[in-house]
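Agenda item 2: zinc ion complex prediction
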Amino acid sequence: MRRRDSASYGKLPSRSRCTRCRKRAVVHLPSHNANFCDSCFVFFFKNAVKRALKLFPVKRDTPIMVAVSGGKDSLAAWLVLEELGFKTLGVHIDLGIPEFSQASRRAVESFAKSRALGYRVYSIVDLLGYSLPEIYKRTNRMVCAVCGTVKRQLLNRIAFQEGFRVVATGHNLDDEASRLLGNIVRHREQYLEKSYPYLPSIGKKIPARIKPLFRVEADEIRIYCQIKGIDYFSGTCPFSRGATSHIFFEALNFLEAEMPGTKRDFLFHFVRNHTPPETDINYKTCSKCGYPSYSDLCSLCSLKERLGNQGD
Ligand code: SF4
Ligand SMILES: [Zn+2]
Ligand SMILES: [Zn+2]
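Presented output:
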């Protein structure tokens, strides 16, 4: 595959000038045909997030709970929302995956402490009685599917308990474009509308979801973290080997190498031509926990039943 001229930091010759202020440039962004100095890159990055936020009906004084994994995306999302003036709380769910979860948790804690940001850590073992590897062994379901369900459900509940109506996640342009491609290729029409970067709340108990980084690429987030001194955890989850999402990711990178800007156009065209999904009114109430659910038991309660854990 032809290697695309990728975004970089600190590799430009000293004569390179910032596209915005004409000072010495250190950031190279080929997909925008631009070079920036540190501060103009931060301006560009914040602007991309502000543009993303315009799409969400979220007022500037709305407190936002940020789901933080300890990786570059969620820590960058947290910092940029804080710097844009939002009141935030970082919430980390410790999945109990040996070594990986300890390192993820340490990254969140040291980031929050170094910037005096409010945060909470919840452990899946405390909440459900089992770690993710144990849940995987007991249920024998696709581990990433279980992990996704558990994280989504627990974050909804934590947001409700903590009094938040909006949850932000760190999904970036690459994540969203490859997810959209996967849903189109597999004809998963039912998931297409969920590819929109804003999902409205459902009743009082399910908060709205926003993806403030959907307009920025993974490489741009790496550069933002480097400039801002964000010490994120860059390890890979041991379960990620079985995931198929990276295939769509690679497919888009191939297209991007041949036709720069494809990834952006693909995702932004979808967003421009769609509206946020309507608030879903076809839900029932879980007979066990009272949370919105599509069936008699919500996915978390049915997982608990499968695990033989009758506690709430
Ligand atoms: S790779 Fe799968 S199991 Fe690991 S954190 Fe991501 S979704 Fe969860
Ligand atoms: Zn500049
Ligand atoms: Zn339930």
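Discussion summary: The first strand starts at residue 8 and ends at 9.
Owner for follow-up: CH.
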